[in-house]
Amino acid sequence: MRVAMIGSGYVGLVSGACFADFGHVVTCVDKDPAKIEALTRGDIPIFEPGLDDLVATNVKEGRLSFATDLTEAVRSADAVFIAVGTPSRRGDGHADLSYVYQAARDIAKVMDGYTVIVTKSTVPVGTGDEVERIVRETRPDADFAVVSNPEFLREGAAIADFKRPDRIVIGTDDERARRVMAEVYRPLYLNQAPILYTGRRTAELTKYAANAFLATKITFINEIADLCEKVGANVQEVARGIGLDNRIGGKFLHAGPGYGGSCFPKDTLALIKTAQDAGSPMRIVETVAAVNDQRKRAMARKVIAACGGSVRGKTVAVLGLTFKPNTDDMREAPALSIITALQDSGARIRAYDPEGMEQAQSLLEHVTYCDNAYDCVEGADALVIVTEWNAFRALDLDRVKGQMKAPIVVDLRNIYRADEMARRGFLYVSVGRPDGAADADGLM
Ligand SMILES: NC(=O)c1ccc[n+]([C@@H]2O[C@H](COP(=O)([O-])OP(=O)(O)OC[C@H]3O[C@@H](n4cnc5c(N)ncnc54)[C@H](O)[C@@H]3O)[C@@H](O)[C@H]2O)c1
């Protein structure tokens, strides 16, 4: 099969490289010339484990190429995927579909012969209808179908998720398009990945329902964590106690500083807007979004409490900036709100992240970026662990303590044990665990 991928970001580049690895001939297109120049040189513009090797191998074998102009790729393609961004529209929280519609117009102008246009971007219900209308209006003579094929990969584990998905959702009523999609995904089908064929609107909504459900799960355990701190219970044990129930499942039950990233915040907002417009408001998701928003600044208050009620003039070391480990993606990362709130309260910030500092520099001001974790804690009055990179899980704690001005650690990911930290002489605060809460209370 010949595949054109319009948009070569976190989703487009991973999907394109994986399709090429299945044996298809893929062109990844992006309107950003710097991105395409880098890819053509062999540089990967994002951090995603394993992606550099996957891209290099498939380029070498002649199955993967890059372009800024989509004409050739689209003309020869059996399937054209749209994988452009759908950020929150400024002002109202609806998904901004301008990139998707522009891509649809660009594709329509050059497509040739029967073409399956596949929306991989996360788009609100009814977007497929509008893409179809745009293509029809631009090219009344065109022979095409518009399919919804939402993507469920996670940054940081994107290649494994794409190659071994829990399911593939394909939304179309067009029999020819269904056959093309079955061929595109045939290698996965052989690997027993379940393919769910649905109507287009159902596929579009399934993606939002999945993300809203996961965001709800995270927010639920975060509120349980708050309650644990009040009543002297341990959220990790509660999570295990409920997660072993198959009806609940153990994943996404890690209490922390609130969800961030390029998907959950914008997708919950977009679903809320869609539901309101449809006259069927989703009050649970509305509450989840509001609770999560509050939580990020509440984490800064937790740090301030651990520091005795004030951080004015103090130095706070922040380990981890990205919204989760194994990515360089800083979009909506909790670290942004936490650091800003600490700065608002007069703290100086030193920070270190293995991959996120370049993106962070354009989003945060007056932060001292450090070379490694030990450099970061030098002279600090408190250390906050915001992202659970593996590199932070086994720090030399005596060295950390020796370099800090005061041995205060606020662990927002619960990666250390309270008893061990106490034994080593730290004042240790974590999330939803009794020792952490007791330490924090003790200071207030
Ligand atoms: N990032 C994730 O983990 C993830 C997971 C599942 C779904 N999604 C969804 O996939 C979509 C893409 O997300 P992303 O994180 O890859 O975004 P991204 O911002 O990393 O990449 C989008 C790319 O599209 C390019 N682009 C925009 N308009 C274009 C056009 N007309 N022609 C060619 N290129 C164009 C941009 O230059 C950019 O490089 C979004 O809808 C997102 O919600 C993302």
Automatic annotation (TrEMBL):
The reply on keyword Secreted is no
Q: Which residues cross the membrane?
A: none
- Report the EC code(s) recorded for this entry: 1.1.1.22
**Pfam families cross-referenced by the UniProt entry:** UDPG_MGDP_dh, UDPG_MGDP_dh_C, UDPG_MGDP_dh_N
Q: Which residues form the UDP-glucose/GDP-mannose dehydrogenase C-terminal domain?
A: 317-418
Q: So what does this thing catalyse?
A: UDP-alpha-D-glucose + 2 NAD(+) + H2O = UDP-alpha-D-glucuronate + 2 NADH + 3 H(+)
The protein's UniProt keywords, in alphabetical order, are: NAD, Oxidoreductase
The kind of enzyme this is, by top-level EC class, is oxidoreductase
Q: In which pathway does it act?
A: Nucleotide-sugar biosynthesis; UDP-alpha-D-glucuronate biosynthesis; UDP-alpha-D-glucuronate from UDP-alpha-D-glucose: step 1/1
Family label: Belongs to the UDP-glucose/GDP-mannose dehydrogenase family.
Q: What is this protein called?
A: UDP-glucose 6-dehydrogenase
